[in-house]
Amino acid sequence: MLLLKSQEDVESLVKLFVALNIKTEVQSDLGIVDFKNKVKQFSKDIGFVDASMSVLVLMAHGEDYSEIITGNGRPINIEDDIIDMFNDTNCPLLKDKPKWFIFQVMINF
Fold it and tell me: Whole-angstrom Cα distance, residue 61 to residue 41?
């Protein structure tokens, strides 16, 4: 099977997280509304009650290092629309637990 590099990266990450017994879900090409809803849903995941940490991996294109472009071409601010969703107020189930964010963003020049 012929895979694009990004597909290979996704498959490698899924294999790694499954081997580490980390619950894994892959989403692709979400528009701005679906993207924001999915991040919010993830930040409220009741599974975090028993979790020792969270990992969010985001692979996307961007205009600069502060935003990514959603599947329908709309920008999302990394700090305001993603990272802030996991602070103690918005995500109390992860309070005092590590939150790992991995951003692989291809900058469009």
Answer: 22
